Amino acid sequence: MNRRVSGTLVRSIAALLGSGPLFAAPAVGQPGATEATSPQAAAVKVCSGCHTMQIVMDTPKDYDAWHDTVQAMIDRGARGTPDEFDLVMDFLFQNMTTIDVNHADLEALMTVLHASQPTANAIVARRTSRPFKDLADLESSVPGLDKTVLDGKKRMIFFQ
Ligand code: HEC
């Protein structure tokens, strides 16, 4: 698959047409493109046609903001299968999503912290009586969290 060439092509078409609906249909229909099956591959495939992945990696956002941004990109012409968009969301939630552990809802806690439902429930139960102070407090109070995951994204985890 020649992603670099089609990326360039997509950018020049985008420059010619702007980002209107005309541009949406044909631009990303790469002939023979196989469906991406990992979160990262899906993100690269769906999100790097018009700009580099850098723009995605430079702007951590919260859970709701990513939904809005991806919708905005679809409106601009981003294309992929429903499965690929699910994987793109996984990629964004796992790598580029900020979270306020003391206020996020259950779904965001599970997705962004890679927590099971019982673990996310334990977070909510504990913060209701006493909000978490910091990451160390979270890790020592709630068993079952993946320390490697948390350490890898600690700049995106907040306690407000
Ligand atoms: C069809 C072209 C196109 C595709 C595909 C595309 N984008 Fe964009 N994106 C743009 C344009 C144009 C901008 C320019 C800035 C603006 O107008 O917001 C942009 C800007 C951005 C920004 C910076 C502005 C902001 O809202 O924070 C982010 C982040 C972003 N894109 C994420 C994504 C993600 C994630 C995907 C994959 C789901 C994606 N883009 C796919 C066209 C595209």
What does this structure look like?
The longest helix has 15 residues, at 3-17. Helix 3 packs across helix 6. The chain is mainly α. The chain folds into two domains: 3-95, no CATH class; 98-158. The chain has a three-stranded parallel beta sheet. The termini are far apart. It is elongated and about 50 Å long. Helices cover 61% and strands 5% of the residues. The structure holds heme C. Heme C binds at residues 14, 19, 46-47, 49-51, 55-56, 59, 69-70, 73, 76-78, 88.
Question: Quick one: how many beta strands?
Answer: 3
The rounded distance between the terminal residues' Cα atoms is 45 Å
Q: Secondary-structure element order, as H and E?
A: HHHHEHHEHHHHE
Q: Name the strands of the widest sheet in spatial order.
A: 1-2-3
Radius of gyration: 18 Å
Instruction: Name the hetero compounds present.
Output: heme C
The computed structural class is mainly alpha
Structure at a glance:
The chain is mostly helical. The protein contains ten helices and three strands; from the N terminus they run H-H-H-H-E-H-H-E-H-H-H-H-E. Helix 6 crosses helix 7.
